[in-house]
Design goal:
Largest sheet of chain B: 6 strands, mixed
Shape of chain B: globular
Number of strands of chain A: 11
Number of helices of chain B: 0
Helix content of chain A: under 10%
Number of strands of chain B: 12
Mean pLDDT of chain B: 93
Order of helices and strands of chain B: EEEEEEEEEEEE
Strand content of chain B: over 45%
Oligomer: heterodimer
Shape of chain A: globular
Radius of gyration of chain B: 13 Å
Structural class of chain B: mainly beta
Chain lengths: 114, 114
Amino acid sequence: DGGITQSPKYLFRKEGQNVTLSCEQNLNHDAMYWYRQDPGQGLRLIYYSQIVNDFQKGDIAEGYSVSREKKESFPLTVTSAQKNPTAFYLCASSIVRSNTDTQYFGPGTRLTVL
Amino acid sequence: AQSVAQPEDQVNVAEGNPLTVKCTYSVSGNPYLFWYVQYPNRGLQFLLKYITGDNLVKGSYGFEAEFNKSQTSFHLKKPSALVSDSALYFCAVRPLDSSYKLIFGSGTRLLVRP
């Protein structure tokens, strides 16, 4: 988990609210990623960004939005359009030198919809 | 479709005994292969990866993994299990034509009993 911080650790959302999850890294990594983890399932990619001011949709981007204004930061907003947002959200980062690079993960944020 | 299978939801082993956590994949070509470990309510920690070369890869905490091209498998092993190895283990693959995408298995829970 070292070098990547996520906040808050736990987040509660009322239906109809937008919430923003923070992800910061001090590893000087170019690429950052957001994954969603549900019980009994592997991680699914929501969004990724390989460079500042650019990001791409992953496999399950609907109902989510991101920004990448700084190299160190990649916040994820869970909008009211996301119908089932309760999950564990993981941020990751990697150097972008080749496709052998390893992704390193933050400690995660657990989001619960009340 | 590209996929990763971890056929066992849970593996039980006694402390001091060898352990194996299985992973097979269905991806075109020879992908890059990764293992991660997750402790409760934590992010994923990188254990090891296979890129090329020797089929036996050594990683963190005494873990190793064996790549078998003919069986499209990448099983995680450890000669002597510790109670502290109890955690959730994820296998992931990156297709050669992708610079970022990781395809995760559904995870295997390892329980090491004293």
